[in-house]
């Protein structure tokens, strides 16, 4: 099984490359001249996009083929007070450059909207806010010219006193969204409310792929052991990706009018992995990653998974990823069922 690793948003190895510079609304209002304040927001956003491109080039140079964009690329983008502001004309070229680099280098990228993007909510105003947040993320991907293989990963949301009712409400409200949103979404199990089984059921119901977060499963397993997760649940999770791959290829073939030279779309399953930080809260992410624990999971699913992409959610980002690769080199030398492919990928044999 081929496994590629990625990191989230920030680089700990590049200087002056934050993709998340921002401005508070309080500071925005203090500027007095609204048009000048909007131009400043655009300059900050352009800096964030330029930093993002630097990070992508750094990742590529390190053989890292996965990356999650910061959701804070455009400051105040979803704030109601600037709802009439269209930042995209000023940022068109910067977005285009990122999209071209991603596609030319075949990188796998994504977004993860923040926890307030919830479609299980019973509150109409929160639902509208969630739609605005989804619009923001989808529009950025469209500005980059990236296809529907590039996803926005979300959680189901809160239980609001009745998890069954909230889950059903999520399905109903999500299915009412435009296809333009729904076709950009993956669903992830969370560490407090909706476990892997429940998230899989929702993903199957709304026909989107599921991202398995291994750490979240450890702290919210719903009574499902690691062995059962790998032997019974994982094949069903992987199937959600196969079905999405099938949908995308069918749409591509239809768009091409049945031409034989249509490029086959590949969309391997995706997981998240992090290690718990030492201390009283097992949900917190550690700076680095436990290579042995990750390898155990990977080897348990290798027999039924030709390729898998793993987003690492360690606090030290790309630094932790490269440290993990060093740990895998040690395990490879010991004959532990892993082979180093390049600076950001490994090959794993089944247990």
Helicity range: 40-55%
What letter string, H or E per element, gives the SSE order? EHHEHEHEHHEHEHHEHEHEE
Strand count: 10
Strand order of the largest sheet: 1-2-3-4-5-6-7-8
Spatial extent as radius of gyration: 20 Å
The fraction of residues in strands falls at: 5-15%
Structural class: alpha/beta
What sort of overall outline do the alpha carbons produce when their principal axes are compared? Answer: globular
Number of helices: 11
User: Cα distance, first to last residue?
Assistant: 12 Å
Average pLDDT confidence is 96
Uncertain regions spanning at least 5 consecutive residues? none
How would you sum up the major sheet?
Answer: 8 strands, parallel, barrel
Structure, explained:
- GO terms for molecular function: endonuclease activity; hydrolase activity.
- 46% of the residues lie in helices and 13% in strands.
- By secondary structure, the chain is of the alpha/beta class.
- Helix 7 (196-206) links the parallel strand 5 (185-188) and strand 6 (210-213).
- The longest helix has 30 residues, at 226-255.
- The mean pLDDT is 96.
Summary?
The chain is an alpha/beta fold.
Secondary structure layout plus pairing:
Layout (H helix, E strand, L loop, with lengths): L1 E7 L16 H6 L3 H28 L4 E3 L19 H17 L3 E4 L12 H20 L7 E4 L8 H13 L3 H4 L2 E4 L7 H11 L3 E4 H6 L6 H30 L14 E4 L17 H11 L5 E6 L4 H17 L4 E5 L2 E4 L3
Parallel strand pairs: 1-2, 1-8, 2-3, 3-4, 4-5, 5-6, 6-7, 7-8
Antiparallel strand pairs: 1-10, 9-10
């Amino acid at each position: 099984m081929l496994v590629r690793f990625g990191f989230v948003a920030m680089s700990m190895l590049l200087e002056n490359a934050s993709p998340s510079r921002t401005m508070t609304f309080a500071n925005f209002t203090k500027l007095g001249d609204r048009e000048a304040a909007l131009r400043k927001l655009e300059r900050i956003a352009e800096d964030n996009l330029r930093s993002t491109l630097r990070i992508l080039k750094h990742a590529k140079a390190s053989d890292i083929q996965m990356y999650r964009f910061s959701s804070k690329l455009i400051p105040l983008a979803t704030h109601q007070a600037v709802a009439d502001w269209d930042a995209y004309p000023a940022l068109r070229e910067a977005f285009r450059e990122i999209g071209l680099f991603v596609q030319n280098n075949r990188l796998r990228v994504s977004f993860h909207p923040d926890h307030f993007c919830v479609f299980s909510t019973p509150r109409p105003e929160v639902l509208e806010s969630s739609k605005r947040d989804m619009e923001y993320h989808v529009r950025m991907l469209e500005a980059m010219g990236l296809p529907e293989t590039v996803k926005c990963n979300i959680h189901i949301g809160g239980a609001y006193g009745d998890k069954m009712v909230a889950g059903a409400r999520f399905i109903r409200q999500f299915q009412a969204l435009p296809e333009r949103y729904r076709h950009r979404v993956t669903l992830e199990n969370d560490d407090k409310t909706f476990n892997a089984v429940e998230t899989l059921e929702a993903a199957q119901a709304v026909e989107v792929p599921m991202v398995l977060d291994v750490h979240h499963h450890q702290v919210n397993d719903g009574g499902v052991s690691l062995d059962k997760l790998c032997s019974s649940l994982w094949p069903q999770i992987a199937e959600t990706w196969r079905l999405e791959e099938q949908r995308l290829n069918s749409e591509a073939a239809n768009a091409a009018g049945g031409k034989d030279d249509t490029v086959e779309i590949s969309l391997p399953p995706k997981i998240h992995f992090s290690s718990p930080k030492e201390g009283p809260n097992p949900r917190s992410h550690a700076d680095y990653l436990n290579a042995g624990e990750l390898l155990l999971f990977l080897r348990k699913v290798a027999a039924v998974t030709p390729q898998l992409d793993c987003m690492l959610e360690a606090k030290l980002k790309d630094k932790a990823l490269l440290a993990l690769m060093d740990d895998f080199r040690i395990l490879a030398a010991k004959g532990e069922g892993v082979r180093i492919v390049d600076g950001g990928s490994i090959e794993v044999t089944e247990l």
